[in-house]
Design goal:
alpha+beta; 3-hydroxy-3-methylglutaryl-coenzyme A Reductase, Chain A, domain 2; Alpha-Beta Plaits; 4 domains; 10 strands; hydroxymethylglutaryl-CoA reductase (NADPH) activity; oxidoreductase; HMG_CoA_Rdtase_cat_sf; HMG_CoA_Rdtase_sub-bd_dom_sf; HMG_CoA_Rdtase_CS
Length: 423
């Protein structure tokens, strides 16, 4: 009889009951089942409230990047990820910015709510009709969240625009909403839902989508710093970094990996603080395609005396209100480690995140321009392989060091060297 993934009433079960079904479905061992069902600091009840059909958790290493000084304030930065060398590279490159540190600034935390209007006889006339009713629309939006307005946020503007599509012209109205210390999805979506019927009445059109945009061009954060050429290994290394950046700025195939390296630093901080890393990724990569010039999130240049200058600019819609930031015990602890408080903590968090992304990008570029990216990766990968094949204690160092020395970092080689060591 073939297996089936149809589990009637699965969503009604307790997590442990779901895990039993999954264990039987996949023939999991007791150890494998235990690994999935370990809830750690999160706890079963909290996990079960956060998403649907919970049967366990997926723990991730939590490291801490040091040496960060942003706007004259020192930070130890939590980073949750599984990739080796990222935390070390960010910490090392941050050290090169001391004692001055990294300078960062943010725009007001304004998000865009989009409302799609179709079936319009004259879309440009509809656009004008919406502009004439701007204050009425703003007031209606702000009635939905008086608390946000009380703290200085709320809808600040209405920007309709006409776009051409394969289905004909549409009027897309942007609600510009200051979300203060929240990421803002709930507030923005609620306002867009409330305003939609009024836009239909004003224009005679029909609304379909009304939802937040993750291309947060009104919520940008910048960070910049200077690295002495001697710290990086001399002016020749600086020139190599600039050559690598020129490649990324000119070639989309390279840009994809270049920007991925930046997100290697950004995503772990977003995750550690309970924010939506998928929204940050979507906004960043969309911005890379949207903005003028090259698609790299960073820009690198050389000062008159040969030092390296770096700058990053990216949409950064992170918050401290709501979501996992307010419910996940580890995320709350990470927010405390960063010293973030309301009001203003979300802006500071965005600046810290961008600073990490800038340093991480430099770490990758420097490795590529000098000894090669694999060196740092392979060192940790060798240790992981040694552990994977059963090495213990001092055996781990001996097996991994031999693999690195011989330039053969593979599981079969690790197994061979461990066998020889034990014999």
């Amino acid at each position: 009889m073939s297996k089936t993934s149809e589990f009637p009433g699965f969503y009604k079960l307790r997590p442990s009951e779901r895990l039993d079904l999954i264990k039987n479905f996949a023939n999991l061992s007791d150890d494998e089942t235990k690994a999935i069902g370990n809830y750690g600091a999160l706890g079963e009840d909290t996990a079960n409230r956060m998403i649907e059909n919970v049967a366990g958790t997926f723990p991730m290493p939590l490291g801490f990047a040091v040496n960060f000084k942003v706007n004259n304030e020192s930070f130890v930065v939590p980073m949750a990820l599984e990739e080796p060398s990222v935390v070390a590279a960010a910490s090392n490159m941050a050290k090169g910015t001391l004692p001055e540190g990294i300078i960062a600034e943010s725009m007001d935390p304004v998000m865009i709510g989009q409302i799609q209007l179709v079936n319009l006889k004259d879309p440009f006339k509809a656009k004008q009709q919406i502009l004439e009713k701007e204050q009425e629309i703003i007031d209606l939006a702000n009635e939905q969240d008086p608390i946000l307005v009380k703290f200085g946020g709320g809808c600040k503007g209405v920007k309709p625009r006409v776009i051409e599509t394969e289905r004909g012209p549409m009027v897309i109205t942007h609600l510009l909403v200051d979300c203060r210390d929240a990421m803002g999805a709930n507030a923005v979506n609620t306002m867009a839902e409330a305003v939609a019927p009024r836009l239909e009445t004003i224009t005679g059109g029909r609304v379909y989508l009304r939802i937040i945009s993750n291309l947060a061009i009104h919520r940008m954060t910048k960070a910049k710093a200077c690295w002495p050429k001697d710290f990086l290994g001399g002016e020749e290394v600086v020139d190599g970094i600039l050559e690598a950046f020129a490649f990324a700025a000119a070639d989309p195939f390279r840009t994809a990996t270049h920007n991925k390296g930046i997100m290697n630093g950004i995503d772990p901080v977003v995750i550690a603080t309970g924010n939506d890393w998928r929204a940050i990724e979507a906004g960043a990569h969309s911005y890379g395609a949207y903005k003028d010039g090259h698609s790299s999130f960073t820009t690198w240049s050389k000062s008159e005396n040969g030092d390296l200058l770096g700058e990053i600019e990216i949409p950064m819609a992170v918050g401290l209100v709501g979501g996992a930031t307010a419910t996940h015990p580890t995320a709350k602890a990470c927010v405390k480690i960063l010293g973030l408080e309301i009001p203003g903590g979300a802006e500071k968090l965005s600046q810290i995140i961008c600073a990490v992304g800038l340093c991480q990008n430099l770490g990758a570029l420097r490795a590529l321009a000098s000894e090669g990216i694999q060196r740092g990766h392979m060192g940790l990968h060798a240790r992981n392989l040694a552990i994977q094949v059963g090495a213990e204690g001092e055996e781990i160092n001996k097996v991994s060091e031999r693999m690195k020395r011989d330039g053969k970092v593979r599981a079969d080689i690790a197994e061979k060297y461990l066998k020889e060591l034990r014999e």
